[in-house]
């Protein structure tokens, strides 16, 4: 555990809770991609199956349980409790174009050809692109609520901080995981455009709106 | 070329 890893995890946790609170307090999931949230629920489920097979630490187990629980709670709020506010027409990204290639890649490129390991790899690859339906939705409507941008910023910072964590671990522990690093780089790059808009607009008190 | 024995990360 190093400072980048810890702040990365906390940033991830903050993102998840910001989104849950936003939906709960406003009684609305307007502007939120339900498809991205389903993908994240799949990501956590596929990755944390090792909860059943191995114990690493109290921190590890509790964070995993919290992430999974919050992911399903978010999906429930969007598709059941506040379904009437869900903007399905604008959430039109074709997720099969992500899930199918990512599934194929996980079968082809993995550390060990075993069910748990392939599911772990699948979750790493899927996570790297799971935000695309959300970004697509924002580009389609041309705007995002400020609270939604805070969510996206925390979510983007999480994998960025993990990149620093991996540099740290490589130098001080000789540890590296090529699959996680490459996927983490892809994931971070996908946020770059958003980071730019967040710093130049949202942090200066303006709403995030894209030119028509 | 990989060291994937540790799955302690989230």
UniProtKB/TrEMBL annotation, chain A:
Record's keyword terms, sorted: Cytoplasmic vesicle, Endoplasmic reticulum, ER-Golgi transport, Membrane, Protein transport, Receptor, Transmembrane, Transmembrane helix, Transport
PROSITE patterns found in the cross-reference section: ER_LUMEN_RECEPTOR_1, ER_LUMEN_RECEPTOR_2
InterPro entries linked: ER_ret_rcpt (IPR000133)
Mode of membrane association: Multi-pass membrane protein
Domain of life: Eukaryota
GO terms under cellular component: COPI-coated vesicle membrane; endoplasmic reticulum membrane; Golgi membrane
Primary residence: membrane
GO biological process, one term: protein retention in ER lumen
Localization per record: Cytoplasmic vesicle, COPI-coated vesicle membrane; Endoplasmic reticulum membrane; Golgi apparatus membrane
Chain segments annotated as transmembrane: 65-82, 94-113, 119-138, 150-168, 174-199
Pfam families noted in UniProt: ER_lumen_recept
A single MF term (Gene Ontology): ER retention sequence binding
UniProt similarity note: Belongs to the ERD2 family.
Name of protein: ER lumen protein-retaining receptor
Organism: Dissostichus eleginoides
């Amino acid at each position: 555990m190093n400072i980048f890893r810890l702040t990365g995890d906390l940033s991830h946790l903050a993102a998840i809770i910001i989104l849950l609170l936003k939906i709960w307090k406003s009684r609305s999931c307007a502007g939120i991609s339900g498809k991205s949230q389903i993908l994240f629920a799949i990501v956590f489920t596929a990755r944390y199956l090792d909860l059943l097979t191995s114990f690493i630490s109290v921190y590890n187990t509790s964070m995993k349980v919290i992430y999974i629980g919050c992911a399903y709670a978010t999906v429930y709020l969007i598709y059941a409790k506040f379904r009437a506010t869900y903007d399905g027409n604008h959430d039109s990204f074709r997720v099969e174009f992500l899930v199918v290639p990512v599934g194929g890649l996980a079968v082809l490129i993995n550390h060990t050809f075993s069910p748990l390991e392939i599911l772990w790899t699948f979750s790493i690859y899927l996570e790297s692109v799971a935000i695309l339906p959300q970004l697509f939705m924002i580009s389609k409507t041309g705007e995002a609520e400020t609270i939604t941008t805070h969510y996206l910023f925390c979510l983007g910072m999480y994998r960025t901080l993990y990149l620093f964590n991996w540099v740290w671990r490589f130098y001080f522990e000789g540890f590296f995981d090529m699959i996680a690093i490459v996927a983490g780089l892809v994931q971070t790059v996908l946020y770059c455009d958003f980071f730019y808009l967040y710093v130049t607009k949202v942090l200066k008190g303006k709403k995030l709106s894209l030119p028509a | 070329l990989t060291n994937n024995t540790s799955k302690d990360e989230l």
